[in-house]
Amino acid sequence: MVPLSWYLIVAAALFCLGLYGVLARRNSVAILMGIELMLNAVNLNLVAFWRYLEPARMSGQVFAVMVFAVAAAEAAVGLALIISLYRLKRTVVADEADLLRG
Amino acid sequence: MDFINSHLLSLILFTPTVAAAVVMLLPGAQPKLLRWVALLASLVPLALSLVAWMRFDMFAGGFQFEELAGWYTSIGSNYHLGVDGLSLPMVLLTTLLTPLCILAAFSIQERVRVFLALFLLLETGMLGVFLSLDLLLFFVFWEVGLVPMYFLINQWGSKNRDYASLKFLIYTMGGSLGLLLAIQMLRMVVGTFDLPVLYERWPTLDQSLFGLPIGTVKTIAFWAFTIAFAIKVPVWPFHTWLPDAHTEAPTAGSMILAGVLLKLGAYGFLRLVLPLYPAQAQAFAWVLALLAVAAIVFGAFAAWGQTDFKRLVAYSSVNHMGFVVLGIAAAAWARGTASAADAVIAMNGAVLQMFNHGLSAAGMFFLVGVLYERTHTRELDDYGGLFPLAPIYGGILIFTSMGSLGLPGLGGFVSEFLVVRGSWPIFPVFTAIAMLGLLLTGAYVLKAIQKVLHGPVNARWKETALEIAPREVVAIAPLMVLMLVIGLWPAWLLNVINAAVSRLFG
Amino acid sequence: MPLEPLLWLIPLPPLVAFFVILLFTRSHRRLSHTLAIGLLAVSWLLAMIVFAGAVRTGGLAEHPIQSSIPWFPTGSTVFSIGTLIDPLGAVTLFFVAWTLLAIFVYSVGYHNFGQPRGEHDTPGLPPHGARSMDASGHGHSVPSVEPLYSRFFAFISLFAFGMLLLVVSDNLLTLFVGWEIMGLCSYLLIGFWYGKDSAKRAAVKAFLTTRVGDVFMLLGLATLYAQTGTLSYRTLFSHEVLARLVETPSYIPGLSMAALAGLLLFMGTVGKSAQWPLHVWLPDAMEGPTPVSALIHAATMVSAGVYLIVRCFPLLTAGLVHGSSFTLSLIAFIGAFSAMFAATIALAQNDIKRVLAYSTISQLGYMVAAVGIGAYVAAAFHLLTHAFFKALLFLGSGSVIHGVEHGVFHTGDHQVDAQDMFNMGGLRRRMPITFATFLIGGLALSGFPLITAGFWSKDEILADAFGHGHLVVFITLALSALLTAFYTARQITLTFLGEPRSEAARHAHESVWTMTAPLVLLSVFAIAAGWVGIPEHFPGLGGVVPNWFHEFVGSTLGEAPEAVAFSAVPLLTSIGVALTGLGLGWLVYRRVPAGAPDPLARALGPVHTLLKNKYYFDELYDVILVRPLRWFGETFVYQWMDRGLIDGILHGIGRLAGALGSFFRRAIDLPIINGFGDLVGESTKRAGRSLRVLQTGRVQQYLLIGLVNVVVVGALLFYLSALRP
Q: Which of B417, C369, C396, C498 could cross-link with C438 by S-S, CB 3.0 to 4.6 Å?
């Protein structure tokens, strides 16, 4: 059986991939996609821990499902925001949306 | 019916409040509806007080239609209402004048809703003072009346209204400060705010208080009461708020101010000062009489010296209310002495004078307002020869002026004669000096008539429609009729007053 | 028929007329005057019934016609008002009713009823006349009807109500009510042409001057009421009450309550009957229409003053010590002085009505003096005759003025003063009825012997003064009688005799019947009224007609005063002064050409100027009373005391409170409390400002910062946990 650590390494790599996308990409849609990657990395962790440590309890799976739902909602809201940003400023570049600059 | 019977006074007292709330809920964009609702609502207390007048038994002593309920029980204050022969005429005067004032205020165009609501609230405040038999309740209503009046002057007044309204408010508040303290002290010593109880226990109280002899404490409390009421009456030299407030207030405000608010002060003397401090009142009656005579004479002189029509009428109030205070002072001095009969007559005159002045002063202010609305000036020199332009107005003005002057055959004469008759044997010198004021009353009234109506026609107003409108005739007609009725047949009113006064001061 | 209820009804019809005319019939002239005269006629009829009943009642003095009802309660007692007719009241009622009726009818003609409205007439000014076309198409200037015609009748109706009320009342309070209502009416009527400045001033002057007296009178009423608990004559003037009043000392040392009350009431008379020093209003009151002058000056209002002191005679004489008292002496002095004083002024007046006005003051002075010397019956007698002949004279003068005004309209020369006697002359031919009646009135006024009423009443006063030994009064009154006859002759001569001195007078015209009929009626009384009081012992005539008046009115007090023993001195004096005065007046004035000065002016020089200016009393009062009082009111009381002192103190308190407040604000609030609060706020703000650079608005930078933080904190935690043993 594949040891737990392998899953964790894949998840960590995925997370880092996502983090890089969030921090480095200029396109807002790409940032959103990075976030999705990070969420999925977390899901992978959750499912892996459940299977290896506490297979009798359902909580790990439930957490994963919750994260899916949140991710879907987040994607919907995020895309809507991006569209309105685009309507307002004719851009989807995150750096150019600095209305809140102090 | 039962409810009406047992809560007659509460109904009289709070119908205006309810009406004020109703008026506030109505659409503000329909002034016509608002006016009529307010007018009709203000007729309800009038009808109810007429019912009270009919059912009132003048031969029974004490208070009638009493209502008693717990209020601030923890500090010993109750919701205690009741009327006797002194307060009933005042209640009638208030409920009579309010609809007439509202009718007079039909010409107000801005913020009609708030104006009418404030006016109805004011009625509750004034009625509360006349009706309450509990010192704290008395004080609360005393102050309640102040607030609407302040806003009426401040919001709907003329040019100098900020100054006038502030002066009015501060002056009255300043007076009621001492009153509040003295009321608290009475409560502390006797243990209740209830007037009938206080009547029995406070004057006869004989123990030292706060390390001072009781006489000193009572004297201090007496002056606290007296000054509060003297400001309201007003007695010279506390009178200077009056010309300003009267002159700047809107017509309906001046009417109610002169007609009823001034009476609150005099009523305070009758209801509180004389029964609670008989000894002090007797000792200081001469001071009061002196100030009253000063008010009569100086008020008349100042009225004579005016060039502003409304201010002239305002000073005439100082002059006329001086007679009320003179009568009260005479009664305070002579009560319980050999000349108690004179005291009763003087007091009858004073109370009747309160009623009569309510009629004539309200009428005069109304007529000044009628003229002001059409000409937008109050300067006597701007008028002149208006009689041919407004013959009906002129006739009404002469009639009302004569009522104010105390022409025999109209109400003012009976009351002034009774005051003079009552105080002449008691304070001969003061009364003789007051006669000078009576003479000058003629001078300033005629000055006003002469400057407004007589003389060559002022060309400036030839094109202006000056004649009084039918609505305005309706507003003043009841006052004129009452002046005449009291002048010809004063007994219907004097019987009630006399019965109460005889019991209290005989 | 019982007379008591009728008494209550007598004053009411004119009151009804007043209200009905004012409220409903203002625009219908005919209806208005019909109402006024018709309802007054009802009063007149009632008055005559009562008078006839009263005369026939035996012992009227002891059992007068009276009834009363409670008016208002005073303590445990009740104040009653009522009506009463005793002999004095009956006589007064008689002459008041007749003169009122005559004056009412006269007013119809006087105010040009039936004439067209003038195009330029405005309410409040006398009518200026109208142009009318006659049948042949010629334009004429004719008098125009009074614009406020109906209102005039309303006012005089109210006036009649006041006077009738005064006469029928049984107590001093309702007397005072009527008294003051007349005061109001006189104000309204003198100021009837209120558009004229002079009329407006005269009205105010009349009201205020009489009010001076009224105020004292009110105190007098208060005194009597306070001392006795009643104001009704019957109780007040009973012996017990009077005795008590005399014994009670008053507030003024040395004066009994009776004397004090008497003096105070007499002040009312001085004001109302225009006695010196309150006489100034009466001549100015001539600004009113002529019927008003007659109403006020002859028949009614001024008579009320004398009526009052005759009424109160028992009070005035109470406490009489050795036949004299301070009050009575004062009354006699003021009366005699006024009689003389006013007669001298009348000599120098040119206005036909003003002469009569001063003559009224003088004649009232006669009556007052008569009361002062104790001859109250004579005073009442003169009151009666004077009412008739003076009303006659006033109405006659109105007729003259009207006639001359007619001439003025005819000639179109409006510069001519229609009231100036020097513009008249020769009117006897143009106005025969007016002349005849005016002559009768004038002769009565001057006391033309035997045939005129004035002779008998004046003679009685003189006889009383002489008989009771008041020589000073007697001489003063005799002298003023001489002056009276002189100025009457001057008036008649200047007006009616000789030749016309102006075109207007040449074209004068006799007045309409509504004006002349009252003149004729009054002239009958001006002669016949004297016959009821011819003294018993008068040579020749005495006893032919019984001295009814003396017995009837004299019985008012219960004990008829005995008639003075006859003496030839006063009789000859009064005949002598009357004839001398009349003769002299005629001689001096019979040939005054147009434009010539008054012959008397040459003879008297500066004295004439003094008289012409009425001894400068108006100017004097203006300087010593009116101006100082006005200054006191306007400047001292209002500006200095109220605005300056009292408001100054208030504003001072206000400013002090304001200053205290701003001190607290500057010294404590601003530096300490506000300083601390501001410090907190400011430092927060500064910190925020320096930290704002962190807020780039770029999401990715925030995330990066977050990541760095996580890494750092994570490392820290790891390090720390590694440190833990």
A: C396
Domain range holding A36?
4-91
pLDDT single digits (tens) C436-479: 999 999 988 888 887 788 888 888 888 888 888 788 888 898 89
Distance of CA B97 to the CA centre of its chain: 11
Query: For chain C, how are helix, strand and coil distributed in percent, rounded to 5?
Result: 70, 5, 25
Is residue A74 packed enough to be buried (19+ CB in 10 Å), middle (13-18) or exposed (0-12)?
A: middle
The number of C-beta contacts closer than 8 angstroms across A and C is 35
Q: Is residue A26 part of a domain?
A: yes
Out of C184, C203, C221, whose CB is closest to B402?
Answer: C184
Q: How many other β-carbons are positioned within 10 Å of the β-carbon of residue C695?
A: 14
Q: Going by DSSP bridges, is the β-strand pair B64-72/B77-83 parallel, antiparallel, or unpaired?
A: antiparallel
> Element (H or E) spanning C140, and its range?
strand C139-142
Mutate which: C692, C693, C698, C711, vs A, most A CBs within 10 A:
C698
Provide the pLDDT for residue C725.
Answer: 66
Pairs across B and C, CB distance < 8 A: 163
Tens of pLDDT, residue by residue over B208-261, are 777 788 888 889 999 999 999 999 988 888 888 898 899 899 999 999 999 999
Low-confidence ranges of chain C (pLDDT < 70): 1, 132-140, 299, 319-324, 540-545, 558-564, 725
Total domains in the fold of chain A: 1
d(CA C4, CA C64): 10
- The per-residue pLDDT for range A67-95, each reduced to its tens digit, is 999 999 999 999 999 999 889 888 888 87
Q: Which of B303, B304, B498 sits opposite C75 (nearest CB)?
A: B498
CA–CA separation, B348 and C317 (whole Å): 34
Is A16 inside a domain boundary?
yes
What does the pLDDT look like over A14-48, one tens digit per residue?
A: 999 999 988 888 888 998 999 999 999 999 999 99
Backbone angles phi, psi at C10, to 5 degrees: -55, -50
CA distance C682 to C684: 5
Give the per-residue pLDDT at C450.
77
* Structural domain contains residue A100: no
Alpha helices in B269-339 (DSSP H): 274-276, 278-304, 309-334
Helix axes B411-423, B391-405, angle to 10 degrees: 20
Asked if B156 and B250 touch (Cβ cutoff 8 Å), the reply is: yes
Taking the C-alpha atoms of residue B155 and residue B347, their distance in angstroms, rounded to an integer, is 38
Rounded CA-CA distance C308/C175 in Å is: 9
Question: Is residue B55 a contact partner of residue B88, using CB atoms and an 8 Å limit?
Answer: no
SS3 content of chain A, % helix, strand, coil (to 5): 80, 0, 20
Of all residues in chain B, the percent with pLDDT exceeding 90 is 45
Please provide residue A27's backbone torsions phi and psi, each rounded to the nearest 5 degrees. Answer: -75, 130
Q: Residue B403 corresponds to which tokens in the numbers above?
A: 């009522």
A76 within domain boundaries: yes
Instruction: Report CA torsion sign: A71, A74, A76, A82.
Output: negative
CATH of the domain at A26: 1.10.287.3510
Amino acid identity of residue C61, one-letter, is A
Buried b (16+ CB within 10 A) or exposed e, C307-322: bbbbbbbbbbbbbeee
Q: How far is CA C32 from the centre of its chain?
A: 25
Using only C-alpha atoms, chain C has a radius of gyration, in whole angstroms, of 38
Does C693 contact chain A (CB < 8 Å)? yes
Q: Which residues of B touch C211 (CB under 8 A)?
A: 439, 442
- List CB contacts (< 8 A) between C691 and chain A: 102
Please name the residue of chain C whose CA is at the shortest distance from the CA of residue A26. C700
- For C564, phi then psi, to 5°, come to -70, 140
Mean pLDDT score across all residues of chain C: 84
Chain A adjacent subunits, 3+ CB pairs under 8 A: C
ipTM: 0.89
